[in-house]
């Protein structure tokens, strides 16, 4: 580097490099300017000056200088390397890899460039290139441990675990001592465990077990050693030894559920179907009874039997598990038992059991059959459990009566108000739920969890401004975006979408997508760090996690929300004046105007970016720290100014199709997008996926009818492409069971006959009946209104449990409003549902906060014996005062 310069300038060039590495950027710039004063066209100096400016947020100047440096000295590997570093800093990894390869053509054995290239190849999952680069590094520098380990990991990622084992063994052969130095024991131990895991992955279980036993003295992590050993013993079928080892692990940690699962597998008591025979249940019961005597303090050994026990034994075991936790006052008891509500019958047994406990405590102060006097709080937590139980079963009246009694019993317990808020949310009164959640929050201003739950309730009630004020109580400088608080951004985006503010909604959804891009970017530093620290098993697990990163629910919700925004943006018509003016212009003029608008938008964007960079550079020159940039588009207005919303929607749709292929919602969105883009084959592909995943789903049926109605309305095609498309669709139609030898009208009737008792299926049939033949609108309305809300049988229930769900009834009402079937149909449906859901603000139920006489209405006050009880009130006028009070509190503990 700098070899072409005289000695004085060559030393200055070394100073530039050293200043860059030590982050003394001003010093480096001074040295670069001194060289360029004499040699203004020196490419490597220009490149290093540009790299220094890039670190000072002067990107435009940096790129200009580095490109000029490459142009002046195109055969310098330094210039190409620096350009690659510049691209890498902007996450342009593919361009950076091209630059590194150009540098290696000039200097093929440069260790530094090869190492940087290998990091980018690992980041981009260019596995074959990663193997090649790592092999070259090992060849050039075989005395470096990291090169051996890196080559082994590269082979592992290339699905060649056996080759990776050979490399690690070859590396071990280069070590002089049998035992590593004291300061390297942990690193060597991790390498040995990684080698054993590679042998296990390649199917060499016997060899892996021998290797594990051989290296036992060198392995520091004894728990990982035992877990690896028991995994190998199980795979080798040596179940008796595995049984003993699992019991050893349980003695170390009796609350680890994985150990219990492994022990059951060793005993042959873990059927793949999940259904146990009566003999297996007896054996399992005996096993856990013996384990409970051995681990009396373990919660897991008492909880697990509730999953497989039945009838009286289940009731007895549940009583033994629940009673101590009610006495102790554990708020999370219902959450712990919530999975028991899925198997039929267990929820009824729990209801009978806890009601018996409640009655016994009320009358005697003791549990049935016990001589121990219970504290008064036991009744409180019993009522607390029952309130959540009835909420889960949809009996909101009973749930509210139980939780109100618990609040009257002990008004200072915060969890009671949080649960009451949750019950009201499920019942449909989101406004009252938000007010109650805020009441709970005010009882403990230092609790971040309760604050977050309150914010969530406010966003569900579309109280966005109030939610923002509440959320910032636990943030500094309102940096929710920097904190990657995705649940808040999703809830906020959904609220804006409901209110029709597409700009803000898009901004929130795309912010979540950016968080995932940042998480993916964060892995970059670990490619070298993990190899250096030898945390190889964790490193490989991290890479696998990153590969499925975009399949997680938060990303799915954000991408789906963004696509819906773009769909709505596409469907919204232009203003009448603009449409009329454009229609009068000739086609050539229209095309010219579109090009002009596009160029103006591009020029505006470039000007804004230059303005931002110049501001940043001026701050850097003055030596001050860069202040946080102001958001130039706080309302998301620029996000709405897209040329083609369907192009933007397609970007996120591809990510969903790749990472969430088993989600019905993914293919529903794909169908909607491709139908709007008139890509019938892609829409049909989405339809086939819908039918494959759930052919009887109402939305799948809607898409089926809409698609073939669209093709039917197109008529006989005249072009060759149209004829080919028509022949493909006609051939594929015969493979769809619902349409074999049937018209669309007949397929719709068959769908109704299969699902007469389901409200949502009847609504789908009625909608398609109207779409197929608008003259049958009265029949469609009558079919929906003739639906009956049956009572679901539930033993021991204190009130009727209706079959219909609130969200389904709301969807049907929106359908009646959207499709102009009859003027009064939606009103009749709303009145009917107001009786079924008396707490729903959407249907204006008699007990909801929307009604003037409701106890949850902010203006409603009841005075009893001269005391005004606590009622949910409008919090907008109180939040600022609470904010000031909160600032005076010490929240260091949170």
From the structure above, extract its key features.
894 residues; Serine Threonine Protein Phosphatase 5, Tetratricopeptide repeat; 45 helices; 68% helix; disordered C terminus
Helix content: 55-70%
Q: Approximately how much beta-strand content do the residues carry?
A: under 5%
CATH class of the domain at 7-179: Mainly Alpha
Give the termini separation.
52 Å
What low-confidence regions span 5 or more consecutive residues with pLDDT below 50?
612-625, 861-883, 885-894
Largest sheet: none
Name the shape in a single word: globular
CATH architecture of the domain at 7-179: Alpha Horseshoe
Name the structural class.
mainly alpha
Give me the count of strands.
0
CATH topology type of the domain at 7-179: Serine Threonine Protein Phosphatase 5, Tetratricopeptide repeat
* Averaged pLDDT: 86
Specify the CATH homologous superfamily of the domain at 7-179: Tetratricopeptide repeat domain
Rg estimate, integer Å: 34 Å
Count of alpha and pi helical runs:
45
What does the model show?
Helix 37 packs antiparallel against helix 38. The two termini are 52 Å apart. 68% of the residues lie in helices and 0% in strands. Among the domains are: 173 residues, Serine Threonine Protein Phosphatase 5, Tetratricopeptide repeat; 116 residues, Serine Threonine Protein Phosphatase 5, Tetratricopeptide repeat (Alpha Horseshoe). The chain has 894 residues and is mainly α.
């Amino acid at each position: 580097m700098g070899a072409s310069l005289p000695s004085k300038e060559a030393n200055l060039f070394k100073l530039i490099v050293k200043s860059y590495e030590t982050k003394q950027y001003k010093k480096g710039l001074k040295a670069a300017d001194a060289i360029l004063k004499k040699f203004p066209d020196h490419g490597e100096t220009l490149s290093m000056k540009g790299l220094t400016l890039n670190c000072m947020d002067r990107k435009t100047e940096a790129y200009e200088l580095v490109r000029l440096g490459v142009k002046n000295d195109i055969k310098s590997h330094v210039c190409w390397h620096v350009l690659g570093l510049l691209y890498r800093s902007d996450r342009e990894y593919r361009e950076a890899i091209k630059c590194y390869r150009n540098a290696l053509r000039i200097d093929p054995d440069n260790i530094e460039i090869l190492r940087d290239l290998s990091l980018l190849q690992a980041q981009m999952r260019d596995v074959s290139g990663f193997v090649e680069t790592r092999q070259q590094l090992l060849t050039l520098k075989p005395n470096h441990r990291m090169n051996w380990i890196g080559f082994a990991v590269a082979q592992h990622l290339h699905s060649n675990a056996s080759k990776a084992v050979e490399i690690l063994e070859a590396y071990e052969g280069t070590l002089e001592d049998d035992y590593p130095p004291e300061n390297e024991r942990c690193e060597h131990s991790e390498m040995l465990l990684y080698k054993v895991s590679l042998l296990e992955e390649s199917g060499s279980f016997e060899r892996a077990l021998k290797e594990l036993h051989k290296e036992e003295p060198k392995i520091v992590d004894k728990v990982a050693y035992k877990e690896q050993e028991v995994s190998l013993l199980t795979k080798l079928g040596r179940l008796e030894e595995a049984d003993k080892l699992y019991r050893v692990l349980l003695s170390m940690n009796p609350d680890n559920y994985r150990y219990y699962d492994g022990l059951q597998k060793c005993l042959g008591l873990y059927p793949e179907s999940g259904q146990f025979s009566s003999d297996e249940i007896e054996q399992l019961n005996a096993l856990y009874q013996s384990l409970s005597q051995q681990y009396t303090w373990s919660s897991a050994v008492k909880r697990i039997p509730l999953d497989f026990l039945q009838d009286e034994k289940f009731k007895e075991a549940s009583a033994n598990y629940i009673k101590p936790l009610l006495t102790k006052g554990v708020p999370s008891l219902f959450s712990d038992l919530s999975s028991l509500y899925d198997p039929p019958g267990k929820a009824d047994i729990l209801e009978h059991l806890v009601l018996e406990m409640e009655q016994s405590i009320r009358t005697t102060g003791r549990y049935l059959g016990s001589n121990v006097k219970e504290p008064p709080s036991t009744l409180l937590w019993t009522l607390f459990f029952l309130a959540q139980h009835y909420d889960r079963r949809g009996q909101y009246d009973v749930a509210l009566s139980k939780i109100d009694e618990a609040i009257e019993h002990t008004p200072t317990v915060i969890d009671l108000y949080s649960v009451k808020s949750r019950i009201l949310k499920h019942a449909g009164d989101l406004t009252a739920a938000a007010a109650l959640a805020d009441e709970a929050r005010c009882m403990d201003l230092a609790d971040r969890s309760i604050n977050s739950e309150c914010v969530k309730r406010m966003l569900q009630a579309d109280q966005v401004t109030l939610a923002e004020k509440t959320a910032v109580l636990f943030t500094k400088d309102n940096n929710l975006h920097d904190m990657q608080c995705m649940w808040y951004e999703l809830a906020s985006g959904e609220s804006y979408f409901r209110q029709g503010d597409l700009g803000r909604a898009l901004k929130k959804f795309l912010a979540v997508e950016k968080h995932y891009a940042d998480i993916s970017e964060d892995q970059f530093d670990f490619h070298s760090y993990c190899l250096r620290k030898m945390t190889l098993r964790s490193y490989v697990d991290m890479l696998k996690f990153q590969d499925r990163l975009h399949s997680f629910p938060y990303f799915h919700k954000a991408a789906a929300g963004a696509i819906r925004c773009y769909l709505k943006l596409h469907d919204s018509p232009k203003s009448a004046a603009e449409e009329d003016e454009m229609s009068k212009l000739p086609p050539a003029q229209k095309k010219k105007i579109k090009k002009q608008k596009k160029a103006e938008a591009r020029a505006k964007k470039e000007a804004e970016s230059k303005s931002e960079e110049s501001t940043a550079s001026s701050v850097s020159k003055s030596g001050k720290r860069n202040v946080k940039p102001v958001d130039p588009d706080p309302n998301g207005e620029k996000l709405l100014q897209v040329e083609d919303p369907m192009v933007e929607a397609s970007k996120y749709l591809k990510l969903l199709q790749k990472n969430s292929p088993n989600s019905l919602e993914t293919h529903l969105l794909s169908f909607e997008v491709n139908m709007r883009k008139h890509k019938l084959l892609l829409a049909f592909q989405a339809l086939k996926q819908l039918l494959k995943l759930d052919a009887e789903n109402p939305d799948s049926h809607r898409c089926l009818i809409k698609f073939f109605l669209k093709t039917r309305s197109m008529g006989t095609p005249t072009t060759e492409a149209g004829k080919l498309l028509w022949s493909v669709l006609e051939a594929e139609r015969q493979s769809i069971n619902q349409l074999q030898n049937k018209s669309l009208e007949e397929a719709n009737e068959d769908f109704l006959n299969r699902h007469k008792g389901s409200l949502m299926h009847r609504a789908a049939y009625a909608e398609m009946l109207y779409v197929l033949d608008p003259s049958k609108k009265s029949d469609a309305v009558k079919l929906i209104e003739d639906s009956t809300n049956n009572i679901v049988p539930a033993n021991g229930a204190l009130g009727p449990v209706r079959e219909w769900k609130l969200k389904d009834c709301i969807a049907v009402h929106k359908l009646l409003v959207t499709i102009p079937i009859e003027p009064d149909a939606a009103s009749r449906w709303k009145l009917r549902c107001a009786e079924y859901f008396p707490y729903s603000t959407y249907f204006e139920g008699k007990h909801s906060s929307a009604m003037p006489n409701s106890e949850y209405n902010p203006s409603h006050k009841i005075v009893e014996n001269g005391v005004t009880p606590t009622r949910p009130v409008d919090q907008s006028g109180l939040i600022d005062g609470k904010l000031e009070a909160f600032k005076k509190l010490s929240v260091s503990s949170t």
